[in-house]
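Figure 2 data, in text form.
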Amino acid sequence: MATAVLHFTAAAVTDRGRKRPSNEDAFAYSVEHGVYIVCDGMGGAAAGEIASSLAVDEVMRLLSARLSEPPEPLPAVVERTVFAANEAIYSRAQHNTRLTGMGTTLVGLVAEVRAVWVLNVGDSRCYRLRESRLEQLTRDHSLVEEQVRLGRMSASEALRSPLRNVITRALGTQSRVTPDVFEVDAEPGDLFLLCSDGLTRELSDPLIESLLALDLPLEELCARLVNSAKKAGGHDNITCLLVRAG
């Protein structure tokens, strides 16, 4: 782990894309509290928007409050927070039949002065750009990704598969969910990208890497990523949240 004290800046852009009638993505961040979240909702009517908004609100509320509570290992706090967000969505759906089956992905970053933790459920992703090299930190909880890991499908076959939208974990669709929570190395100059699959389905990792390597303000980098995804097709909602360590 890096031992330097880290300071962070952030920016985000979300867009409904060119094909969807509404935006079911949601995001929020607080540099003060070191919490950065992106969610991609799913469900009929407005259910996806409700699920993603519920998740973002609950996670931000609980993780922002951790600083005023007695010290507790951060992974335990994060897991408890994800369980609470899952319960909030699942319970809402159980009490309203129009919302049955709604859910959302979740990818987040929790930053402290000397440590960074990543959490994810579903196929929204976290990347780290270091010295112009992009690395995917999260592992997709998707059917095709699991087939790739098992050697039953190639990466190129996964990109073309009609099942590529099927995710194997989501917040709110079941009474319990298991998030991935892990610590990552962070150094001054690192740039973290949290994004929904509306970005990664349209843009290859090498293209994302080249765009992030531009020497531009974070807000402009976000806008360029989103606009590039829209030009490439914009088939889904697109959200990107950038967090720079300094």
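Caption note: DSSP finds seven helices and eleven strands in the chain.
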